[in-house]
Amino acid sequence: MKGKIELADILLCKQNGFTPLVIMMCGVAGSGKTTFAQRLEKEGFVRLSIDEEIWASNGRYGIDYPEEKYEKYKEDAEVKLRQQLVELIQDKQQVVIDFSFWQRSRRNEYKQLIEEAGGEWKLIYLKVNANELRERLQIRSQRFDANAAFPITEEILTAFLLGFEVPTDEGEIVIE
């Protein structure tokens, strides 16, 4: 499905309490994943965020912990959130996973996890051009919170863009 999609369209996908719906957000930093996920959270979804888990457990990047610990903390946060995801699905909760899901293999791994736990997944890919990402990231760099823990430089953005595996024929819903 391509084109413009509204929050109401996602909410229409919610199951009637029988099969929990898990929304997997997908996109590069600055694409709007967290903003979209927060809107779903206001509609009753439980939002899982690696960034917020790291912030809550370890504090601020480069201030409360050294930058070189970030990858380890990210792995720890994901282990915790994966377990929480399974528990939420088993409790028949609607969930939005506020991760980047850059790699097809990781997306497939989570799809399998969701299905095995008894849930249904929807992959939402937020497709934003590089210039728009730069503008958004410049604005985001003025904040300092869990969802803007460190600045995304041009070098980092370029690496993100080069490393991102665009979802194709994965059942994705593309929002441009």
Describe this structure in words.
The chain has 176 residues and is α/β, with parallel strands linked by helices. The protein has a single domain, classed as P-loop containing nucleotide triphosphate hydrolases (Rossmann fold). 46% of the residues lie in helices and 13% in strands. The protein has 7 helices and 5 strands, in the order H-E-H-E-H-H-E-H-E-H-H-E. The longest helix is centred in the middle third of the chain and has 21 residues.
How is the topology of this model organized?
Blueprint: H1 7-12, E1 21-26, H2 33-42, E2 46-48, H3 50-58, H4 70-90, E3 95-97, H5 104-117, E4 120-126, H6 130-140, H7 154-163, E5 172-175
Parallel strand pairs: 1-3, 1-4, 2-3, 4-5
Helix pairs in contact: 3-4
Quick structural summary:
The protein has 176 residues and is of the alpha/beta class. It has helices at residues 7-12, 33-42, 50-58, 70-90, 104-117, 130-140, 154-163, and strands at residues 21-26, 46-48, 95-97, 120-126, 172-175. The protein has one domain: P-loop containing nucleotide triphosphate hydrolases (Rossmann fold), CATH 3.40.50.
Main β-sheet description: 5 strands, parallel
Number of individual domains: 1
CATH architecture classification name: 3-Layer(aba) Sandwich
CATH evolutionary superfamily: P-loop containing nucleotide triphosphate hydrolases
What is the CATH class designation? Alpha Beta
CATH topology: Rossmann fold
How many strands in all? 5
- Rough outline: globular
Order of helices and strands: HEHEHHEHEHHE
Low-confidence stretches: 1-5
What structural class do you assign from the helix and strand content?
alpha/beta
Distance between the termini: 11 Å
Estimate what percentage of residues fall within beta strands: 5-15%
Number of contiguous helices: 7
| Strand numbers in spatial order across the main sheet | 2-3-1-4-5
Oligomer: single chain
Rg of Cα set: 16 Å
Give the integer mean of the pLDDT values.
Answer: 82
Range of helix content: 40-55%
